[in-house]
Amino acid sequence: MSGRRRLNYNSALMIDAGQLADAGSPEELLVRRLDLKVLPRHVAIIMDGNGRWAEARGLPRVHGHRAGVEAVRDTVETSARLEFEALTLYAFSVENWKRPKYEVWALMNLLKEYLRRELETLIENNIHFSPLGRWRELDGSVVAALERAQDATRDCDGMQLNIALNYSGRCEIVDACRQIVSDWASGKGTDIDEETLGRYLYTAGQVDPDLLIRTSGEARISNFLLWQCAYAEFDFIDTLWPDFRRRHLFEAILDYQSRDRRFGGVETDPVAGQPTERVSEAD
Ligand code: FPP
Hints:
Elements: H1 26-33, E1 42-46, H2 50-55, H3 61-81, E2 86-93, H4 101-124, E3 128-132, H5 140-152, E4 160-167, H6 169-185, H7 194-199, E5 211-214, E6 233-236, H8 246-257
Parallel strand pairs: 1-2, 1-5, 2-4, 3-4, 5-6
Helix pairs in contact: 1-8, 3-4, 4-5
């Protein structure tokens, strides 16, 4: 992330709370409880539950994915306003090819539509977009849309928005190792340590996620950011992804701020706050 703004973990951010929630709304009550000085720098989200959301309404699964795009919009906007350094969304795994062809096609079209509709907003909000994964293996029209969005946001130096596509954490580590070996073969090899390996990952130069959220009540990591989440705080919430809105994000951050992060040591990291009572799960 060279040349890109880096926030000091404890810096007082100039966040406009009025932009995050309407006055008097339940969201505003949550925002007031947030400690804006110790926000996560990088939030990663496994967006799960679209199919179940649709099935509960007697609709085809793709309606759940379509409804999920609204949750993506709200989450990206809120995350940018919270001035996260990075937001990573898991949109399509290498395992997702096992889904029916029509569902894969629909997901790719939703992605293209999202990029077409939101690109101007991303630029206006100074958001730098990158796909993560073996995304160059996707259909040519998807690759073109991703490259266009990458190029168009190249000079944006605000939040980094990563969308993981044709992604697998194990493949990412394999790809990194292959590149390291190839660099060694061409005489560019250096000592291999954790820092070196990190530089070969898709997320090179970005901070590791502090907080990983998974929706829909499933409590597993599903091959997502395996290396980078070594010290992430995990939050598994029952809400299905299409219902996820900023209040859920605020609640996840409040929960995060109640954690005692020690990174294997005994000193407590400055993430500290009051345990949050979740109101949204009862909605
Ligand atoms: C998991 O729910 C969700 C996905 C595999 C796709 C996520 C995609 C979107 C939210 C829409 C497009 C994305 C962007 C970035 C514009 P699931 O289908 O596995 O749900 P289930 O477990 O209930 O079946």
